[in-house]
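Homework help board

Subject: predicted structure for assignment chain

Our instructor gave us this sequence and asked us to write out the predicted structure in token form, then describe one feature. I got the tokens but I'm not sure how to describe them. Can anyone check?
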Amino acid sequence: MTDSTQQPSDALVFFGATGDLAHKKIFPALQAMARRGKLNFRLVGIGRSRWTSEQFRARARDSIEKHSKIDEAAFAKLASAMRYIDGDYNNASTFQKLREELGPAKQPLHYLAIPPSAFSTVVNGLAQVGCTQQARVVLEKPFGRDLASAKELNATLHSAFDESRIFRIDHYLGKSSVQNLALFRFANTFLEPIWNRNYVHSVQITMAEKIGVEGRGKFYEEAGAIRDVVQNHMLQVVSLLAMEPPAHSYREAMRDEQVKTLRSVRPLSPEHVVRGQFRGYRDEAGVAPDSHVETFAALRMHIDAWRWEGVPFYIRVGKCLPCSATEVVVTLKRPPMLALPANEANYYRFKLSPDVIIALGARIKKAGDDMSTEALELKLVQQPSADDLDPYERLLGDAMQGDPILFARQDGVEAAWSVVEPVLDCRTKLHEYEPGTWGPAESDKLIDADGGWHNPC
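My token output:
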């Protein structure tokens, strides 16, 4: 008998098909799949906008015109595959219509781009009409608000789907630049011997956004920077930087090593966290006038593992900062014979966005008679390629094929929540900072002993 977990899905069911995510990300990704000849399945959108299938197709075209570029041949293929069901998730007839629309499809992929409060209703509705047997399910972050709610969410999903059929999308894992962190480590012989506490002095990761909350004040009030990007994006980057080499003999080796690393991260201590809020945040629509939600967070964490004992990992994220960029800087220990300041040591720099750069910071002799040094940076710059896949195109394709490697697993999600749990819900002091700066001054004090922050722009 063929293992159905290895068979590609034969239909994509998109709950929340009239929402912002579909408009900004999913329709362009689906056209890209059609252009590459990978859209050979039926697409059924479900929403509550009282649309027809023709209006659904018009929405898809508008999406691609605004967020990508229309390829008429590819779009025609996408449009021919699209169907729309208008219905209430609380009404059993909605799921009966879906079962009929799926026709001969036996192994659909259900994409839940809906509020988490509706997950249970939709999962139960699918199960009642037999749409969960041999099916897969995709859901967007946040995967809960804390450890308890994450466990509750997983219990809801597992009531109808095996863990091997659950795909938790973190679009960060679909970025080639992020995947390159692990590949660069393990594909280059010169790096692995020094990638440990004997040679690494510190690691810092900055994810800066120039924009503010962009009209999403209500959402941000329920999330904050730690929930929004530290618990998921940033801890995923930490796991790729710090994980042990995965074995190649079984599929789950990569995720096993990432989870082992996350379980080794010491839960955060309030004294190692600085939270900030940009001036003007409380004037945003949907934001409480006395809000204590952070739009900036800087933290120091430690990994209780042989390889990384004593090496501090610093994370800094924030909105209304001077630029939008994500960068990792791994600073090496100073040579014993030279009295160099901490910020003049060798380093590796990985720029993940907006450009993709891998750089080595070295010291060379300065021109002149004396033996003083100056900094030199050697760069590898990866140019954009037509073969590059958008993160959503890559992740949608992998989910349709049943490939879980670039998706978060239950135990990894729960381990990440365990790390941030001690500092959730405004348990530390909030510092105001001016838009266009690098956050509150208190964040500098957090890292002063290790040479200060490396600003990515």
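Reply (TA_rk): Your tokens look well-formed. For the description, you could write something like this. The chain has two domains: 4-140, 173-390+400-450. That's the kind of observation they're looking for.
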